[in-house]
Amino acid sequence: MIKVLFVSFESLPFVKTGGLADVVYALPRAIDKSKYEVKVVLPLLKTIKDKYYNELEYQDHIYVNSGYINEEANIYSYYLDDIEYVFIENDTYFYRDSVYGYQDDASRFAFYNVAVIEMMIKTGYYPDVCHEHDYHTAVLPALCKLRFNAIENVRRIKHIFTIHNLAYQGIYNKKVLFDLLGFDYRYFEDGSLRFNDDANFMKIGIVFADIVTTVSRTYAKEIQTPEFGENLDVVLKYRQNDLYGIVNGIDTKTFDPSTDEIYKNYNLRNYKKGKLENKRSLQYELGLEDRPDTLLVGMISRLTWQKGVDLLVNSIDHWLQSDVQVAILGTGESKYEYALRIMEERYKGRVVYYCGYNEALAHRMYAGLDLLLMPSLFEPCGISQLIAMRYGTLPLVRETGGLKDTVEPLNEYTKEGRGFSFGPFDHFAFNHVFEYAYDQYYNHRDNWNTLVRNAMKYDVSFDKSAKEYESLYYKVLES
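Request: output the structure for the sequence above.
Response:
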């Protein structure tokens, strides 16, 4: 039995700020339990502690001495769906109202990475493979290989590091490496831990992991170029033989229109009636005009430059000259929130903006929308388009990263496809494909319904991706 430890800073159902939490929840469930013993370790963040603390089982107590860090921590465990979750408790670093965004985030992440190793040593649990996720856990391979390498059980651990979004790297003053992580200065001098004159957690993970993965095939290629490499393209190019792109999936039990807590359940056989009822109920809930035949388009997203919100905001006026309704769910940059509030006020009953995030409402929107917009500048994989297809809502996406890998555009001759896509990141291309989708909805409903059926039939589960990860676990252990 191969032991795999998932190391992350967030996971559903405990805490979520983005798609990382969905992956760390769904992937361990899809791994073959007859071959793999899977555990997940997380920090005991405030949102988790407030809700689950009385259900956690105390395991042990550890001391974390790392540079200037001198803290204690408690280890707890919790079982959910036959998967053990290990939580590291330290209120100094983890009992915060938000998950990220603090001036001492470097200390919080450093403490967590070292604490994971101290947890292994104290409990005697040593995984065969550590699967680290994103920059928050990226220094763990280097700690095992450079600082704790005198301990054979730690040294022998193999490491797979998954990049979920290269734009967020964890760049800090170089003193973090010595004052918080306890690395020897010579590893900075020889360039192993150096990024310009700083510490870059993402770069360290890429260099020291045995295998590096990212969340789509296209993104794995894109990040090796200056355009998408976020100043790490040379490092990624150097690791290209150990770099793999594996498309994300979703948990198809959580996202299932036949069982989900939406307005009206439906499946592939009765989706027309089901989606119509969900659409009308969504219009009513959001205060949109009761017009079930109107094309209802939406976005469920963080409102940032990466997500192409500029394209959306500058297009709504044009779209609303036609028979269209728009529903937006999300928070982000204040300029976008302000612009969407203005649009909502200007087009009462036709535009609605829900400022915030509501998971239950998101599910109802996936069921009730006709078209989901994802005009991203870049998108490592994307989760929303997978959920949308599962619910028979067609995605309109830019051809980048995982969006390109998962959304096949309509081919009017073969009737293949699962949505709509455009290439250049500009308003002309975006509006051109929107007008094409608009035309298909109103004038070629047979094509539209074919796309919906294709989308609902498309395998968005983690089953295929899990097998690819399993092959990498075997590969890394044989190296």
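The two ends are 18 Å apart (CA to CA).
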